[in-house]
Amino acid sequence: MRDVISIGMIGFGTVGSGVVKLLEEEKDLFERRVGAKLVLKKIADLDITTPRVVTPAPEKLTTNVMEVIADPDIDIVVELMGGYEPAHSFLLKAMKAKKHVVTANKALIATRGSDLFQVAEENGVDIGFEASVGGTIPIIKTLKESLVANRIQSIFGIMNGTANFILTKMTDGGEAFEVVLKEAQRLGFAEADPTFDIEGIDTAHKLAIVLSLAYGKNVNFDDIHVEGITGITGQDIAFAKDLGYRIKLLAIAIDRGDAVEARVHPTMIPFGHLLANVNANFNAFHVVGSASGSIFLYGQGAGMMPTASAVMSDVVDIARNIREGISSRVPARSIREADIVDINLRPFEEIRSNYYFRFSAVDRPGVLSKISGILGEKNISISTVIQKGRTRQGAVPIVMTTYKARERDVRAALEVIDRLDIVLDKTVLIRVEDDDL
Ligand code: HSE
User: Fold this and answer.
1) Domain with CATH 3.40.50.720 in the chain
2) Distance, CA 98 to ligand 1 centroid (Å)?
3) In this predicted model, what pLDDT tens digit does every residue of 122-156 receive, in sequence order?
4) Ligand 1 binding pocket includes 202 (Cβ within 6 Å)
5) Rounded to the nearest whole angstrom, what is the distance from the C-alpha of residue 191 to the centroid of ligand 1?
6) Where in the chain is the domain with CATH 3.30.70.260?
7) Using one digit for the tens of pLDDT, what is the confidence trace for 156-172?
């Protein structure tokens, strides 16, 4: 049996520093739990001079990534550099050199996961990516292993801390979008380019990964419908409150039997639901399994030590396998790659949801009946109507919520309504999730 397992790391940023810190501070714990010493042999980064929270011995640091990938003593390569290239090539090279790999690279797993998993299987090595979704929350292992006896009926998740932080502050403190975004960047959980956070792309990357595990299928990232939070205003947050909802950026997967719905968009959810109470930068997943029923996972979706905890859970899993002389015990997506087929995603226009509309209309007799008439013609049934306050001379916000309607019909109705001369601005549409939650 092996008594030392060697690790090499590529990328020595915030999460990398956390991994080094954990390996140093908890080395006895790891040794007891693995039954072998975990030794960090080499760390590669282009910048090895900036001080970090940890100070590895200088001989462990290199600017040459090949000193990690080509070192025959290194068993596990941990990639924490992020981005598509050269991270993708480095992971492929490492696996072809028969090294197990661990990555936190969500964008890469979401868009190139199939290649990486295939190469892992061909080379008989493991690939761990727990840290790619939900930071410290064990959603990957939960789907792959703990819920293996279940067909996954639905997943509703808050998967981006930055967007959740912004919406929480806008809701609870009435703060402006731009001010809160700057604060999230200062606190360090926004991406370098916050567009991915606020436009829902980071959430969609995570949903693509979760979907492919939940259903054991290939997911084409571009088929996921994505809307961000940049259009959310204080006015809609206030109307949502009046209606008993909070607005969250949700990632949604629902198995409808013949197809799976997968979408990311701002969503109104009832105050009382656990997800409505996931605030600040926290992430959460509400998963419904066919046998398990509802389960709820909650925790820090980013940050140095929470993410390092997830990275180390993969490292320990792999180290335990190495000690037992086995690999690929649990396939990357719970199903052998050869058996993976493409997922059947329902076109977004075909989804059915409840809706919130805010019309900006002139305030005169017959306006409400005109709007509701068009909705009725498209088979959209109104559940609530609120009209209060005038925003400017002659214009008034009219808020309506609907019963379940088809996205295609809703779009067609709004197209007609927005062309009416009694409607002064583009209608705001926010989907409402109630009964599917
Ligand atoms: N930018 C991400 C977030 C970091 O805000 O959640 C974790 O993936």
Assistant:
1) 4-135+304-342
2) 31
3) 999 999 999 999 999 999 999 999 999 999 999 99
4) yes
5) 6
6) 348-432
7) 999 999 999 999 999 99
Å from CA of 414 to ligand 1 middle? 33
The CATH classification number of 4-135+304-342 equals 3.40.50.720
Give the Cα separation of 407 and 428 in Å (integer): 14
Distance CA 293, CA 240 (A): 28
148-300: CATH superfamily: Dihydrodipicolinate Reductase; domain 2 (3.30.360.10)
With beta carbons less than 8 A apart as the criterion, state whether 288 and 153 touch: yes
Asked whether the predicted pLDDT for residue 390 surpasses 70, the reply is no
The whole-angstrom separation of Cα 37 and Cα 27 is 7
Residue 96 annotated among the catalytic residues of the structure: no
Q: Which CATH number fits domain 348-432: 3.40.50.720, 3.40.50.2000, 3.30.70.260, 3.40.50.150?
A: 3.30.70.260
Q: Kindly state if the Cβ of 302 falls inside 6 Å of ligand 1.
A: yes
For residue 82, the SS3 value is coil
Q: Where are the alpha helices (DSSP H) in 144-233?
A: 161-172, 177-187, 195-198, 201-215
Backbone angles phi and psi of 14, in degrees to 5 = -65, -50
Radius of gyration for the chain, computed over Cα atoms and rounded to the nearest angstrom: 24
Which segments of the chain belong to CATH 3.30.360.10? Answer: 148-300
Question: Which two tokens mark 366?
Answer: 């017959």
* β pairing state of 127-128 and 352-362: unpaired
